[in-house]
Amino acid sequence: MSPTPTPADVLESVRAAVLEAEPHLLELSHALSDDPELAFDEVRAAARVAAVLEDAGFTLTREAYGLPTAIEAVYGTGELTVVIACEYDALPGVGHACGHNIIAAAAVGAALGLAPLADELGLRLVLLGTPAEESGGGKILLLQRGAWDSAALSLMVHPSTAGQLPATGLVTFALEHVRVEFSGRAAHAAAAPQTGINAGDAITLTQVGLGLLRQQLPPATIVASRVVEAGVATNIIPDTGVMEIEIRGANAQEWNDVRARIRKVVEGAAIATGCTWSVEPTEVPYEPLTSDPDLADLWDGVLAEDLGYSSGSIPPGYVGGSTDMGNVSQYLPSIHPMLELKDVEATPHHADFAAAARSAAGDRAVVDGALGLAFTVAKAASLTELRARLLDLQAQRKPFATFDAER
């Protein structure tokens, strides 16, 4: 790729706009942290994000794509449509212990930083408020309803305490949650056990099968389970058995193969005990993240050259958590980079991480995250070959509903 350097004055204009908005961004981050809301209930969070963008002249759609807590804010009419994903759901019991207050404020900051230059850069900016990342797959529902159909690229940023990992090569786990149910026949465990069909035994056999399967699991594939129901009394042979299984994998094909094998384990347990069985997803599956290499390189360069971060290398075998941004990345060029919370050791999904996300380190991540996203978009819009590739891919891409049905 032979880049045309982004003019320094463009980046300085973006920086100035972000820094001008900094008080509002930190106020937003703190307000979200102080008032956490769970998946699909982010009413006040969505309203706060919408208010900031509407005041800045963005065209707002509330309850976007039929989701009550999704918003879509649009600015500019350029041919290159970029969707900045803005998460704002919290976790039960520990609030914003995954730093979604930072994610939301950084996304808003990036949009505000780019808006004054949208026409000059030929951009159509879309900030998409995406509910329910922690559970429920809000982005997947939005994908299915066409929220990314007109986009050329998409990006967001996530805080991390694992050091400054490069975006290039970063992967996340695919994830599926399923509910397994066995139906048998109840009987008195002493007077007539021979007339029963023991659904609890089917649960036990499934657990044994999963344990034996682990020997053959591919690297970076993880299976976890818990028993929900396996009987109510020792003198009653249970007619119902219920368990939940979680399947994660870093490689899509291997993950799909393991999903199929687990269903065979369940079927085998049902055959052995005489039960009927079902396996039903409890949420839409999260797919693995595939980072666009050009966008990832741009992000890594921005952090090193423009923001002064020193990226390490991804440790061998390292895989991030799971995110519905993975599904987005399977459809169009995307990145979901991590941004280090400086001098913070707390682990995500712990109360200490929620406190750090509201600290000075969290505030710095809001501003640097906004600058990183905005600079990456500005450079992508200005690189002739990259811009042409993104637009060409967009022109060839089918609507998500068609894309999903054909794969």
Automatic annotation (TrEMBL):
Alphabetized SUPFAM superfamilies for the sequence: Bacterial exopeptidase dimerisation domain, Zn-dependent exopeptidases
UniProt keyword Hydrolase, yes or no: yes
Pfam family, one: Peptidase_M20
Alphabetic keyword roster: Hydrolase
InterPro entries referenced in this protein's UniProt entry, alphabetically: Amidohydrolase (IPR017439), Bact_exopeptidase_dim_dom (IPR036264), Peptidase_M20 (IPR002933), Peptidase_M20/M20A_hydrolases (IPR052030), Peptidase_M20_dimer (IPR011650), Xaa-Arg_dipeptidase (IPR017144)
Molecular-function GO terms, alphabetical: dipeptidase activity; para-aminobenzoyl-glutamate hydrolase activity
Domain named Peptidase M20 dimerisation: residues: 178-269
GO BP terms in the entry: folic acid catabolic process
Cellular component GO terms, alphabetical: cytoplasm
The family this protein is said to belong to: Belongs to the peptidase M20A family.
Protein name: Peptidase M20 domain-containing protein 2
